[in-house]
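ugh ok fine here u go
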Amino acid sequence: MTHGQLREGFPMLADSRQPTDLRSEVSATQTELSRCLTQITSLNPPTRLAGFAALRQILESEEDEEAFRETQRVSECEVMQTLLTLLQKHLPKHSHPPHRNHTPQNPSLSLLALDILQGVALRDAASKSVVGRGGMETLATYALSHTDALTAAAALEAIQCILVDSCVNLEIFDTSPHLLAICALLKQAEVPFLVKRKCIELLTIYLSAPPTTEDTRNDSDRQERWVGKQGERQARVARVLGQGFVRRLGGGVG
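structure:
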């Protein structure tokens, strides 16, 4: 029986580890992560693939979850920072506004990094905040500039992950010049169906996101503020896609 299974079967043991046990787990996880990050930044493709595979295994392990979050707290979200640096290094070249006529420089690397980024964002709130503050434009550029449907879709999924349960990131997205450009993808005939589907999923999350505990106001103030924000977001999307579209997503634009 694994430690994760033991905790699930006996909740009273969930916090039974001593601080020294957690410290040793954090140290071991940090060593593994450092090796992974060295590998994924390697110029050797097989080494890079091995690093991404090992990093995914760490993210999928319930036993390493607490240790992973602690390593990211201590290292100032080193994994997310490394992923963003990789993505920015291979950022699609585009004019302004971006056009969907770009041939990806390195789609395999981009897809791997975007996939891992999603897992890190969902597991670690601090890392989610890092990509919200410093990576929103990078992700939007991948979504808007890649003719490769898989890469564009993965970027849109990554934006979904950083918006979930984060009113701070939602407010950053509110002011992003890329929001309306993402809406406009749905009106372009040449955009692949997969990308359009991910746009709709993203807008559904954006328009229906509930208040979160990040907002420290009391319940009634938080609810009132959320209703106002939701109305602003519905109106913003409706300017590009129409009120009927917003209603179909469950919004209430009047």
